[in-house]
């Protein structure tokens, strides 16, 4: 169906807040990836591959749509663009307009399409570039709040806070009773990014804060800072850290430690989105509730919201109307009620789509903020995470006062990236896209390289751990690293099993990879190395016909060493619980690949690892 163009409704320039989520359901010749008929969609983490990709295939069974895992960094797409291989649809989560400046000439403007009219105005106010174009759109919001142990509050007779003053009193009371008020995982960069904005949320939602944010989102080079505003922000950040009784010891608290402290009742509050709270509730014999973030300058409170992903279209889609229509159908599917639930991984979705009703009914404790449209969309420029970590850690350690912390934050935000030196000079080009033999040459090359480095005879991995084509010429270490899914990295394992067990492993992977993910189409076939799978395809899916090693049927009695990832290890464990599986210590797929390439060697050649028979 053709999509009618629609004039962009004037954006409201009010306070950042509201409720909502999304609703429902000819490119230039390429040197490496030569298949242009399909629509290529990059999703930034493998959870999305498992959740939303099968749903979209189900909605559009006759459309040729290939989903590929990406990374949470726009530089991956800059790498593609430099080689004239920008995908049709790209997504990231950590995003600011400044991060995608070099992509701007190559991205489509959504402003003239009716999809923008479906969005609440507050949801897109920071997505306009200096040309008044909207090249990126957020896909539903996830509320990030304080999670409080109400049972612990009641046990000590402490009132659930309803404003900042009462929050401070509650923290002091817990501290006096020997309980840590708030176990925030300040060893993680995302929590430091959150704490600055949450502590001073009243400043970020003020007119001064909105004006600064608008400028920062579109800054072409240096981000300009309003000194008066930012001195207030860091004064309130420092005050929040003190009032919450955070100290030097919190610098090293990671996500696991912070979570465990809360689960064991050693802290009264943690933070997270609805899915995190559901997971915590299962582990705890206590009543948990949500608390919003409070302004220090008024009695207002806000839901701190994280877009689940941000999406952009390749401008070349406008040269192929049929393909563009398919892309817009995919976007409509993502912003449908069901699409948003799958993307947000459950309940507690703030709909940015005016056609989709609120999905916060099962998320009590935030009714007032939702009804008052008091929702703050986080600022997440790539550099803001490092800048926040350095500044907050400086305050916690006592090495910085408020002024020094602000100076550090501003300096890191505007720090010039050092010129990146090449790690490897690739002599060959391999595509990440599915080829005519139903295999992915780049993924095969990467997996085979790692297998040989780890002295394993065989390897089996899901397709969604491999992100990028390899291009002839020099490549930096950061871009080498982005050829695997750093945002969804996996540990590596080695098992020694006989040929019969290898056969059963591949057979079961094709039939049932795990409880949440099934191989439903050719694009989801696994990557193998050291062996070749001959697969039958039927309407019901795929089944293993044969497995060969060195062009001969696998020896069912012979023992093989096989390299596995989290998913394939789980499949093996399920079918063979007694099998001994060794995890390679301090090694992931991404680290093993970057380490191999750091030696300056060439990657292994791709293998002919799969054959699909109709």
Automatic annotation (TrEMBL):
The keyword Cell membrane applies. InterPro entries: 5'-Nucleotdase_C_sf, Bact_solute-bd_prot1, SBP. Keywords: Cell membrane, Lipoprotein, Membrane, Palmitate, Signal. Residues 1-23 form the signal peptide. This is ABC transporter substrate-binding protein. The lineage of its organism: Bacteria, Bacillati, Bacillota, Clostridia, Lachnospirales.
